[in-house]
Hints:
CATH topology: Four Helix Bundle (Hemerythrin (Met), subunit A)
Number of strands: 2
Number of helices: 11
CATH architecture: Up-down Bundle
Strand order of the largest sheet: 1-2
Radius of gyration: 28 Å
Number of domains: 1
Distance between the termini: 27 Å
CATH class: Mainly Alpha
Amino acid sequence: MEAARPVVERGPWPSAPAERARSGRCERLGRPCPTAPSSYPSRETSLRTHTAAHQPGAVSTRLTIAGWALHLYTASGTVLALFAVVAAVDGDAIRALWLLLATLAIDGTDGMLARRLRVKETIPWFDGARLDDIVDYITYTFVPVVLLWTGDYLPSGALGAVFAALPLLASSFQFCRVDAKTDDHFFLGFPSYWNVVAFYVIVLGLSPAVAAGLLLACSVLVFVPVRYIYPSRTAVFRRLNIWLTAGWLVTYAVLLAQMPDPNAVVVVLSLAYIAYYAALSVYLTLTRSGSGSPSTTPHQVSEAAGVAKPGD
């Protein structure tokens, strides 16, 4: 962190040249000049106060407490993940999907809050990015695979186990890449949206063979350098992307509420967002490659307490 620069604030006192000019005028008029109120702070006092307030170590206790509360908020995703696993084992896939929607809401807001609360400054020794990666792997990859496996949405036997292992292994690789997110806010390769895959497999009632095909295709896409948009951070159509993503989350909730008989119009609207997201990502990948710009630059997998996924 760059050291704070002392800034001299303008106080209510007159400057020295102005004070001398005023004294001369008063002497010529033969009357006393009023003096500045004793309550005015001196320049030295103001300078010391301003500098002390902006020192790197002068961190508000309330901001520190808020930072820890935010980390707890992020970590609560693991508790919801546990409840989702319990629901999956109990055979209640819809309850598990509601819980995964709650984790989406947490992941979609904690990054924004982390930047606003300056958690990197208030708690610099705690790695919020690592915490977020742990929570994301559990909620975006592990729990959805458990849900598909326990709900018999995958082929039975050893073949089903192989397909269940593919997302786990592919995402383990992706979460360890330093270039998984580019400096201009794109995800490199399929960004482990296994919770979205599980959602559509269950809501649309896809067969085990189709579900297995989706897992295989998306696992391969993890290694294909398509630049997927980061809805809340990618500069291109950023405002539109945020609104469309919010709309998609609404369709997610509506479809769950309508189960087991989802409305076809809502299904189409929900899938339209997925088509838009994929098409825009591919288009921006191709146009950037054609311009000769480098496709990626090394960057951390996530920022403090917030890798943006569909809800961010």
